[in-house]
Amino acid sequence: MVRKFQSPPASPPLVVKIGGSLYNCVPDLVPVLLASGRPLLIVPGGGMFADAARKCRVDDDSAHWMAIAAMDQYGWYIASHGMMTTTLLQTPNRPSVFLPYCSVRQHDPLPHSWDVTSDSIAAWVANLLGVDLLLLKSVDGIVEQGSLVKQITFPVKTEVVDPFFIPFILKMKVRTTIINGSCIDRVEKFLRGETVSGTMIGTTF
Predict the structure, then answer these.
(1) Model pTM?
(2) DSSP per residue over 73-121, as a string?
């Protein structure tokens, strides 16, 4: 009897969170994501849409859902540059923008607080799907005492991600990398599997 072994996929799936601060970079990022050949689930940040929610004097529950609705708005903006959208919590066959409101509303998995932002929602999605997470920010990664931290293995205080994010990532063992999404060539190289400047979070890579 001949046993057939299936080789692992050349381009593993990935959850990619695009920060709201990268609004002006989206037209350049989308073609790179589409050309990667990888099954990417794009989680949008909140950006200017979430900023509007922050200015409203509402209770924590209302602010939570307003901010997640803001992620849908930013998601539609990303999609307007040629990418499909989905509301399904599953790995897509092609790069697709995840519109999170309905799924998060249904599962309600996270605390209703400004300590939880789109970063933690992206982490929750990656953990649920069992895939790695890439955070695209407008900074190179997490910096301590003026130097870029290449790897984080325990909770640290930082303004780069929300307070809930790092403890959740470490607890759930979600392989996570933070890189500067405004450096388009850096994103392209990372998606090809090359090592680039950034911060990795976790104990095994």
Answers:
(1) 0.91
(2) HHHHHHHTTT-EEE--SS--SS-EEE--HHHHHHH--S-SSTTS-HHHH
